[in-house]
């Protein structure tokens, strides 16, 4: 989590998925602080935490396939498409919200 003047301004989730795989989720930055470098610092901290806590060698994440600008942001930071997609977890299924899976070696 990131705080500024006592207020929460960013957060990220890291979870163990397998022996060498961690999952990155819920990376969020206060909209007025986007493009300030905070997201990148949170991402770097999450990757470091995955290595230190889980001995992860890879990090995966899911992004709604329609979020091209967000996918591009992660690609600039070393994440690549795995070719896998996952459904958005709602019933009935909503194909317009499918996730693409991105992965990065740590």
From TrEMBL:
Domain N-acetyltransferase span(s) in chain numbering: 1-106
InterPro entries hit by this protein: Acyl_CoA_acyltransferase, Bact_Acetyltransf, GNAT_dom
Keywords noted in UniProt: Acyltransferase, Transferase
Superkingdom field: Bacteria
A Pfam entry, by short name: Acetyltransf_1
Protein name: N-acetyltransferase domain-containing protein
Organism listed in the record: Brevundimonas intermedia
């Amino acid at each position: 989590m990131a705080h500024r003047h006592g207020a929460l301004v960013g957060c990220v989730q890291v979870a163990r998925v397998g022996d060498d795989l961690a999952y990155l989720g819920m990376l969020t930055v206060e909209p007025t602080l986007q493009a300030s470098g905070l997201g990148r610092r949170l991402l770097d901290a999450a990757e470091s935490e995955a290595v230190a806590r889980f001995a992860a060698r890879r990090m995966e994440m899911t992004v709604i396939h329609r979020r091209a600008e967000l996918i591009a942001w992660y690609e600039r930071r070393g994440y690549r498409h795995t070719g896998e997609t996952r459904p958005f977890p709602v019933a009935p299924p909503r194909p317009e919200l499918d996730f693409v899976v991105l992965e990065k070696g740590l």
